[in-house]
Design a protein that fits this description.
Number of strands: 8
Strand content: 5-15%
Shape: globular
Number of helices: 10
Structural class: alpha/beta
Distance between the termini: 18 Å
Helix content: 25-40%
Order of helices and strands: EHEHEEEHHHHHHEHEHE
Length: 293
């Protein structure tokens, strides 16, 4: 069993690196990839550990990077990267995390006010920029029940839906333009290639109504190595569909839980929302093409 999409405290996960390794060992994962957002610093910590003391499996150095397609914020995964080189290059294409978060929070606050959403006037003064803007503003929105007339129930109850459906959708009034905050798709994929990595597209159906538009555009315009076909929120039909696309187009297959520790308490390492269990055989075709830690 494998899990090639997990996060630690170095981005928006809550687990320490050692804690994550221990959990991976406990659930019997043969291969993992720590794919923190826009950083590979977890691997620098691994250098100072006796990894086999905690985890007997293999580790593929990875990263999840923010980018955009058709004006829509998406993510890409890089596997088998030179993490030292990546950590040196990241500051050349991304603002420091706190600075980016603060800008997004300010923009989202203004969009909320313009849309008639009630917020405390001085709420941004309490903003801790180590947290994503979406998480902070959503909590502020939820302080006022009357905002339920503007934010639908699904998004009200689940942050990822709020982010994808409202903040990341150009057709919605809370859409945040981040063209000046993240690299474009070509720049992001080139960075992964420069660091010796393979490019995969994660959780394509998380982009909701824009999923097929994004999928078709990427397949037509860019060369990627594969797609994340097994993902914690995918239905059986979605998994079958993207898996078939990969096979038909000779693209590689990957999968992961998108584990975040306590930040996503309903997502377990290796198992996602329920019983993900991605078999090692799914990456046989490409597992010897990437470097391991």
């Amino acid at each position: 069993m494998i899990d090639l999409h997990v996060h630690t405290k170095y981005s928006d996960g809550t687990d320490e690196v050692v804690e994550l390794l221990k959990k991976a060992e406990r659930v019997g994962l043969e291969v993992i990839s720590i794919t923190d957002h826009n950083t590979a610093k977890a691997y620098e910590e691994l250098e100072n550990l006796n990894v086999k003391e905690y985890y007997s499996g293999k580790i593929i150095p990875g990263i999840e990077m923010n980018t955009k397609v058709l004006g829509i914020p998406i993510e890409i995964l890089g596997y088998g990267i030179d993490y030292k080189k990546m950590n040196k290059l990241i500051p050349t294409v991304f603002l420091p995390l706190k600075e980016r978060n603060r800008i997004e929070a300010e923009r989202l606050y203004e969009k909320c006010i313009a849309a008639g959403i009630k917020l405390e006037e001085n709420c941004l003064k309490n903003y801790d920029a180590t947290y994503f803007a979406s998480k902070f503003i959503m909590a502020e929105i939820q302080k006022f029940e009357e905002n339920k007339t503007i934010i639908d129930e699904e998004a009200w109850n689940e942050l990822r839906v709020f982010y994808r459906k409202y903040m990341s959708n150009p057709n919605m009034p809370l859409y945040i333009n981040t063209d000046d905050l993240v690299p474009n798709f070509k720049e992001a994929t080139n960075l992964i290639r420069e660091c010796g990595g393979m490019v995969f597209i994660p959780h394509i159906f998380e982009y909701r109504e824009n999923s097929y538009k994004i999928l078709d555009y990427i397949l037509e315009k860019y060369n990627v190595d594969g797609f994340e076909c097994f993902y914690t929120t995918f239905t059986e039909e979605q998994t079958t569909e993207i898996y078939k696309i990969c096979k038909d187009k000779n693209l590689y297959v990957s999968g992961g839980s998108d584990y975040h520790g306590k930040a996503k308490e309903n997502v377990a390492l290796g198992f996602g929302h329920g019983n993900l269990k991605i078999d090692f055989s799914e990456i046989i075709e490409w597992q010897d093409k990437v470097r391991y830690f």
